[in-house]
Amino acid sequence: MKLMSSPIPAPVPLHPDARRRLAALEARLAEDLALLNDPPANWVPPTAGPNGEPVSDVVVVGGGMCGLVAAFALKRAGIANIRILDRNSAGLEGPWMTYARMETLRSPKQLLGPAYGMPSLTFQAWYRATHGSSAWEQLFRIPRPLWMEYLRWYRAVLKLPVENGVHVSRVGPAADGILALEIAGSAQPILARRVVLANGREGLGKPTIPAFTDGLPRERWAHSMDDIDFEALKGRRVVVIGVGASAVDNAATALEAGAAEVRLLARRAVMPTINKLMGVGSYGLVAGFPALSPDWRWRIMNYAGRQQTPAPSNSTRRVGRFPNAFFHFDAGIARASVEEGSVRLETTKGRVFETDFVILGTGFTIDATARPELEPHTAAVAAWRDRYTPPPEEANEDLASFPWLAEDFSFTEKRPGEAPWLSQVHCFNYGATMSLGKVSGDIPAISEGAAWLTRGIAAALFRDDVETHWANLLAYSKPELIGDEWTDADAPARAEAV
């Protein structure tokens, strides 16, 4: 199967007056925020650790898109005592400049993303300022590197205090109402009342690695999220497993690096062509999905998953323009081995492919039990399999592994009383999809998800501190009236009676 080619989008030059225009946008954003009384006063009473240590009210793990909008939403709600931690270097948060290899984002360019209701914080506003309105009108979709540039600006203009190079290795209870985050390479944990896991697509799971790789040396294959040396694939044969977005993006990258041939092998008999969830995409789906019964949520996600979301057209054409790219269907892999220096892949239909290197475009498996951050408590996390049993014809182990979350994105216990502190950890990543929908990983509804998350955290913090707030209520004595604003008409009569 061959596809017609399409040109690689050329880089768009900056507007000649980009610096002044961006400064004007930032001034407009500052005014917008000031009109919304930003920054609001912090209302959360301070908390000390068991030995008097400082305790953050919220620690956000992850400084990519999800972590940034979550932090902004918390600040806008008057929750100021927060920290944002990211294990990557500054400017490399999230997948955009690491293992994401698409030319452009899938999402339409006009989506609001992490703007959180601020027109002057949208990608469109930033792009028009830096590249011009004419360039915006001509833009098809957002180039991946430009999206990262926008997120860097977003972080800077909002003064979000991301701490880079900080790797959270464990999260667990430290004292009553306080969590400890163990940091790799540090003996001093970070204490927090609430933790938000905003750590991306793989943040609550692991790469999906097919069993056939057991027959291959590790240096002969890589997962699409790995740091792949594509230059080393020049002149070599490559097989990519899958035809989804990550598979075609990695295939295109290998071809552009000069691979001798690239073959994409799919288990499916035909190429998926319809993004089914777009058929019901609306604010109704965003708001209504969490309110549906478990039966309906399961039915929708199971159907959409089995249909499979196709790779974007422009990404697929990026592969199809190469004459040495080949798509093969009904080609699930039964076994793999290395023979006479070549990787030998035998399909379930008996066909054999020989190659030099295999790239797995097989995505991620969501499974809280696979996350080292929650060890040794992972067995206490409730999953969908613990709360819901689908009809036999809709059985799906991938969906069953998703965590069963509360409406504030917090984990729930498999057995009551086993690990109550899990309710203080919020899963603001792709792992929330089954419980709450696509509001904590994908661009379209990320601001809506951040608002839900913040509302839940604010409510929990106020509830936990209600005794302090009650005492503040009783002690409050600032007079609104000082006594000279009115005249008591009956005062003279009472004075005469005395």
UniProtKB/TrEMBL annotation:
Designated name of the protein: NAD(P)/FAD-dependent oxidoreductase
Lineage: superkingdom: Bacteria
